[in-house]
Amino acid sequence: MSPAARQNTMPRTLREIGQSLFPAPGSEEVLRPEEGVLDLLGGTPRKTLRSDTESLEAHARSAATGDPQAQYELAKLLLTGKPLSIQNREAAKWLRKASAREHAASEALLGLLYARGQGVHPNPERAVELFRTAAIAGNASAQYHLGIALENGFGCAKDPRSALSWHRLAGAQGHVLAQLRVGQCYAQGIGCRRDPVQAQLWLRR
User: How far is CA 94 from CA 73, 78, 111, 117, 136, in A?
Assistant: First the structure.
């Protein structure tokens, strides 16, 4: 057996599974009416290095006072692509503080970190718990991530029908990846009967 084939047969770690299922923080956003597709895809620069530094300092001051929104914004600025970086661990710390104040966006993002093992040990069950809490509060990202978890049995029992319901809720709020997934589900009959008309409606949004 070749090294490549042997590697393909090796069981994946929780971190690898989570990172294959869930998008990296910041890679998926809700598309607002005033934003264009290029903005969403990063085609239009939004910040400079100087403004990032200034934002980091300003949010750090507000976060220290216990402001959950500032703690959330600070965590987003701290996050990096390296799962075990010091910055990611620091971001998780601030998200825990904000989540303790029932800040839905922080619960959703903290759940994503637990799902991907980014700055924390991978914990699918805790991720789903946080996704569900934030999803019920109306957070579109959490609704989408909960749908992914339910569809794949990640940290919970598989439930494609419920997954589709959560994807629809997120898609109705403008979550682009959720809209795409709803269209795919209707096209393939995942969690529902195949419905080409509904599939096209969602895929063309």
Answer: 9, 10, 13, 16, 22
| 121: its two tokens | 């040990």
Give the three-class secondary structure for 11: coil
Selected residue with higher pLDDT from 89 and 31:
89
| Half-sphere exposure at residue 192, Cβ-oriented, CA atoms within 13 angstroms | 19
Alpha-carbon span 194 to 186, nearest angstrom? 5
Bridge partners (DSSP) of residue 175 are: 30
pTM for this structure? 0.83
Give the type of residue at 44: T
pLDDT digits (tens, 9 = 90+) for 9-62: 557 899 999 999 999 998 765 544 444 434 444 444 444 545 677 778 888 899
Question: Helix 160-172 crosses helix 140-152 at what angle (to 10 degrees)?
Answer: 160
